[in-house]
Design goal:
heterodimer, A: mainly alpha, two-stranded antiparallel sheet, 72% helix, B: alpha/beta, Rossmann fold, six-stranded mixed β-sheet, four-stranded antiparallel β-sheet, 9 helices, 10 strands
Amino acid sequence: MDWAFVISNAIVLACIYGTLAIGISITWSSLGLINLAYGFIFALAGYGAWLTAQYLVPLLPAFTVGPVVLLGGILTGVLGGLLVCAIAFIPIHDKPNFTVRGLIATLAISLVGTQSLMWWFGPRSKNLPEIFGTGKLKLFDIVFTADKIGNVLTSILILVVVLHWMRSSRRGLEIRAMMMNPHAASIVGIGVRRTGFYVMAITGGLAGLAAVLLSQTYYIAPFNGLTPMIKGVSIALCGGLGSVRGAVIAALLLGFNEALTSVTLGGQYVLITQFLLIIVILLIRPRGIAGILDKAREA
Amino acid sequence: MSARREVLNVKGLSAGYGPMRVIHDLDFIVHSGERVGLVGLNGHGKTTLFYAIAGLTGWQRGSIKLNGVEVGRTRSQGPGRYTHEVVHHGLALIPQGDEIFHGLTVEEHLDSGAFTAKAWRERAERKKRILAIFPPLVKLMAIPVGRLSGGERRMVSIGRGLMAEASLFLVDEPSLGLAPKIGKGVLDALMSVDLGDSAMVIAEQNVALLEGRVDRVIGMHVGKLKGEASAALMLNAKREVH
């Protein structure tokens, strides 16, 4: 078996799914919203990047293609996040039973949204230009293609920037405070709705990033946000909702599992082994991997 | 004390949760520079009164003027929806039972209390002031609050409230659940805060801890304020409440 291939694939998948999982995890723990429209934001951002590549890129010099397409995807993701926030969070967040209502509202957005994408762009899948070029790098007898290296570096870079921002800035402090205790957050003067927009914009941007990166391997289609979202949700669960470090570790584990399964058993068994793995982890640690990392007592 | 100003003026306030009405047509005035003790048994509405001022109850009706600005409103749902606006008008609520962020460090916690723009700019200086009031926190600044003991958490929780640029401090049961000695230390710290132009209301069950140290004491009984006594008449006030 080609271990180098398995490991490099695992890391690429882990970066992309980890980005999605962190977005879902942050949304859930700070807003109490299970964002089922995340797959829709993902697909929307893919089309945003595609439109950028179609209409904006020909006007620009060649070396800007990568950053511009990436930026187009991320900004569309941000807009998608704000849209979902305005429709599914702001009107109902203080109504009784918000968790279920939010779940249904985001599911509705997801269904309506993906059908609209289908109606607007048609069912044919689209391709993005290769934003990281087509070069290859040979290291220790292993060939790394440019898109793999680009994927890993870009997602790590943007995640580090986002997480650093959450650690050091005032808005980040607000978001983290809301993740830990929303009631106390309102007592110290943090406006739930304004923070909601920040959170949804950031997580939407992360979805956009993941969409552009994944489209380097796959393609853009109205319904291709669903599988990444399911994987993102399961990684977020497995890592422990609300824990960024847990999500990163879970993403590595599940990425490795996915790459290994597709090499040994075949791609069609990926979801089976993945959910078996998640069930085992949650049986042992019901709070996910974060349960091991967390040193602070609850309440 | 400069000219006495009404920091808080509550008129005809009723509040509760769902079908339950906890506070009944209550009037309550707090002047600047004043320390007020609010005493009463469990379940008689002290916390609900504080929550109503902060807009955190299930529903409420009546007028609440904070520094002359109307912050009360009749509403039937959305607890906490307007709380951040009330906080911006100068309220610092130090809630019962330490509503803390268990994963934030002590320092981040104090930062989160400095919410208004002015307090945020001055937060280094303000933190120094809090640490002077609660010296044990100096060593703990980089530790997540979830790992602290009950007494230390209470200090953090009170410190967070005092970080705010507030004109009204509402302190809910500062000695609850603490060993008597630690509880007394926390109360001493609260008494040592220089209020300046602001005011402080302390809800407390242990009347002995307030004795002779607050400007007046008000008893609370089944959602109404009963009797008012200066600190000298403490014991009478206590009898009236029971």
